Amino acid sequence: MSDLLIELLSEEIPARMQRRAADDLRRLVTDGLVDAGLTYAGAVAHCTPRRLALSVQGLTDRSPTTTEERRGPRTDAPDKAIDGFLRGVGMTRDQLDIVDDKKGQVYLARITRKGRDAPAIVAEVLEATIRDFPWPKSMRWGSGSLRWVRPLRSILCILTNDEGAQVAPLDVHGIVAGDTTEGHRFMAPDRFRVTSFDDYEARLKRAKVVLSSQDRADAIWQEATNQAFAAGLEVVEDAGLLAEVAGLVEWPVVLMGRIDEAFLGLPPEVLQTSMKEHQKFFSVRDRDGRIVRFITVANRETADDGATILAGNGRVLSARLADARFFWENDLRVAQDEKMEPWIASLANVTFHAKLGSQRERIDRIAALAREIAPAVGADPDLAERAARLAKADLSSEMVYEFPELQGLMGRYYAEAAGEAREVAAAAQEHYSPLGPSDDVPTAPVSVAVALADKLDTLAGFWAIDEKPTGSKDPYALRRAALGVVRLILSSQTSANLRPIIVRASRQDIEWQRLKGRADATRKAPSEAADATLPQQQLQHASSGDDCEPEEYGAILAQDLLTFLHDRLKQHLRDEGIRHDVIDACLTGDRTDDLADLVARARALNAVLATPDGENLVQGYKRAANLLAQAETADGVEYSYGAERKLAETDEERAMFDALEAARPKIDAALAAEDYPAAMAALADLRGPIDAFFEAVQVNSDNAIVRRNRLNLLSEIVRTCTRIADLSRIGG
Amino acid sequence: MSDAPRSFQEIILRLQSYWAGKGCAVLQPYDMEVGAGTFHPATTLRALGPNPWTAAYVQPSRRPTDGRYGENPNRLQHYYQYQVLIKPSPPDLQDLYLGSLRAIGIDMDLHDIRFVEDDWESPTLGAWGLGWEVWCDGMEVSQFTYFQQVGGHDCHPVSGELTYGLERLAMYVLGIDHVMDMPFNASDATIPLTYGDVFRQTEEEYARWNFDTADTAMLLEHFNQAEAHCAEILSRPALDPKTGKRIVMAHPAYDQCIKASHIFNLLDARGVISVTERQAYIGRVRTLAKACADAFLQTRAGGWTDAA
């Protein structure tokens, strides 16, 4: 048994690639070793800005000798076949054995592969790994043709056992593997020899390199929080930044500095974003949440305890924040003096999508839609429209141009500065939400109206130009938008029929395209213009002629889009433990575009299905439905004339009549009140009578009148059971 | 630090003498308006082909849209870049570079130098490379790039390119907050001059011209002429009928490409180029750059040899 240590020392590796590269190194090397017949006990990979390292413990010293038997053609087969076999196994005819087989006598090749020593295998595997390493972006340097993320400078590759360390015989484009490495670029640049992984890690530490990125991150975080705490302050957590900074240093030294008073009037988010994006600084806040200090992580210790480094970083930050303040003050002027109008006007020059027009045109559509949605979500239509008109104004501001990630938030600040209503300002920030499955959903009615309008216009627009998501491709994040619609509706308890709203959105988009198509047609050759107005293949018949009204294919698009929303809804509810088939069962009737209602029914059905009554009810229902369907097919009649109690012959039959009689008003009342649990409970009450009925009653009686009456009774059971959901769609 | 430089020009002189000492040919600025030192044919064209090359030079660079009438502490429409190009890139290029920082008075034991990922791409030159921006105490002081492609051609061998933004670097080294306050020559010279004494007025004049006065119709015409002439130059057969020599006119053609690129920048500053047109203009300049690169590879400097 040996332990293997590999280190690939290069010029600085981008921080964002390090973690993945370490994992790839571990996977590729260990897979290669195993494929070559070695086994190992464990493997750990590490990364720093200049090195990828891999430690493999308990590696076998030799691959085993193996023999493979391969059966060939019959001994009397044509020479051609036998020669082909010989080529395949790389042997001559006299090296083959002959054995008996069902087919007769056949040739047998016994191929022996001699075991090989670990160092040779390691060298081979590592060379292949380096040559084919899956860097997201790689480069050449000097006169060579080797590719690495940045120039590869040295390779350390040793196998260590009780007798000592042995270098694997490896030469990659003139870089010969050895048993030495370098320390910190500035603090301990000399080369030194290592004998094992433990020795390597310890010597690196003495040479001012912390090998483990986790250790570096932990040390940074601990030191940062300590320094902040000592000053009565708190570091703003940022796991992504911490990981990145840990990838920029081999020897982290945490330094905390002050932010010039002159900049403390900037919104805290602006300070934080500017410091993080440009300088990779952590923000430090006081008890009031104001950001008052920064933390930078240097890569070295200095004789002046970092004073020069801190002063330099402070000066760079001041220059950056002077820019930010310049943007902020210019933007505030536009907001206060001109009510953001120039921004909105200039959005006419910003293309949203070539086929969907400018941001400005899109805002007009969203505003109209927000107005329409407003009553359903309890928002004031005027406020909703105003909010929609202003919500994207900040995209033209200088601050958002500099820091796109501040979109929405700046809109809120600027709308407040412009004296807009509180709800309108909030919508500027909140209408983008929810962005992901775990993002908060806005609850303020105006925000909900604008958020819904924004997402529905996006969906309808891309549907109209046939840019729907396919497979894993969803470049416009339409699945996310649709899930956003679902979550907005569910969390705001909005009970609204979506269909007319989607139809309206689609119609707006189609109308817009048509106008644009006409405008284009006056400039372009007629054939080209016709192409530009064809939004979707399946709609060609509808869109190619002027006789077709937008309503017609607006409705077709709306149905398709609604199905897409239902799919998102199913996924969303699966996390809640509601099965696909339960939702499918509820997708009946004419209210499937009311997602809140749909979900209420699905939840009620799901709850009942979890009880024995519910489960048996479904069985009883299916039995009734099957019998009825068979009889209707055989007789060519539809048994829906109403059953008569007086024709009932048995108590169970009569009890069934009574139970239906009793259930119907209860179900009606519950449905009228949209109390689906009560409706389901009333339905579940039928389970006993239905079971008893099937137990005792032979539906296919010899008496034709009795039989017909019973089939009509089944029909009533089926119709009653499907008042809330189509139970036949329940699986199992 | 007794070794600290005292003026802008001293920093330039030290860089010149440092890189001269490392064997670079110290060239002079290219005599045309360019947006960056990379445009100098000593970089763009010499990065192509198999021949070794090593050069260092100051290049005045013009970015019309960055003009601020001399008021912004560190934005200028005319500034200086220091440019080093070595082909093939030597294995110790990072150390050579760090040596140049020491030469201008940056004490490696007190400062925090970092190589932070920054991939370089020039859509107008059809060029890209991988490397870093170099940070000194959190400030970007240089770009460090290994050229992978120029003018659409893979670089074999690869050149290492270093670009220093001289004003910013000097301000940092000299501890100056506003570029116009920076001593250009030594402050105890008989006639001491600041950067502002030399450039404040021209920054004002050019900002006004760039933003409001440059004749856009004329510039558009010049752009079209430069484009057409570049193609015309390259369309001539290699054999010069007058001398009977093989003369591929890669450099004169490339001058027209540089001209077109700068005119595009001026038009951009005048705000007459829309977002969609922008891409089209960049594409037109790139077409010229690629054609010039193709032509350069047909010259001796580009590695062409008589097949016979």
Automatic annotation (TrEMBL), chain A:
CC per GO annotation: cytosol
Keywords: Aminoacyl-tRNA synthetase, ATP-binding, Cytoplasm, Ligase, Nucleotide-binding, Protein biosynthesis
Domain DALR anticodon binding: 620-718
Reactions catalysed according to its record: tRNA(Gly) + glycine + ATP = glycyl-tRNA(Gly) + AMP + diphosphate
Bias-annotated ranges (Polar residues): 534-543
Entry EC no(s): 6.1.1.14
Subcellular location(s) of the protein: Cytoplasm
Example GO BP: arginyl-tRNA aminoacylation
One MF annotation (Gene Ontology) recorded for this entry: glycine-tRNA ligase activity
InterPro entries linked: DALR_anticod-bd, Gly-tRNA-synth_bsu, Gly-tRNA-synth_heterodimer
Ranges of biased composition (kind: Basic and acidic residues): 67-79
Matching Pfam families: DALR_1, tRNA_synt_2f
Top-rank EC class of the record's enzyme: ligase
Region spans: Disordered: 56-79, 518-547
Signal peptide: none
Chief subcellular location: cytoplasm
SUBUNIT field: Tetramer of two alpha and two beta subunits.
UniProt similarity note: Belongs to the class-II aminoacyl-tRNA synthetase family.
NCBIfam families: glyS
Entry protein name: Glycine--tRNA ligase beta subunit
Organism ancestry: Bacteria, Pseudomonadati, Pseudomonadota, Alphaproteobacteria, Rhodobacterales
Gene encoding the protein: glyS
UniProtKB/TrEMBL annotation, chain B:
InterPro entries in the cross-refs: aa-tRNA-synth_II/BPL/LPL, Gly-tRNA-synth_heterodimer, Gly-tRNA_ligase_asu
Broadest EC class assigned to this enzyme: ligase
Top-level lineage group: Bacteria
Principal subcellular localization: cytoplasm
GO MF term list: ATP binding; glycine-tRNA ligase activity
Keyword check for Aminoacyl-tRNA synthetase: yes
One GO CC term on file: cytosol
Subcellular location: Cytoplasm
Pfam families cross-referenced by the UniProt entry: tRNA-synt_2e
Keyword Cytoplasm (UniProt): yes
Gene Ontology BP terms: glycyl-tRNA aminoacylation
Assigned EC number: 6.1.1.14
Keywords: Aminoacyl-tRNA synthetase, ATP-binding, Cytoplasm, Ligase, Nucleotide-binding, Protein biosynthesis
Catalyses which reaction(s): tRNA(Gly) + glycine + ATP = glycyl-tRNA(Gly) + AMP + diphosphate
Family per similarity comment: Belongs to the class-II aminoacyl-tRNA synthetase family.
Subunit structure: Tetramer of two alpha and two beta subunits.
Protein name: Glycine--tRNA ligase alpha subunit
Designated gene of the protein: glyQ
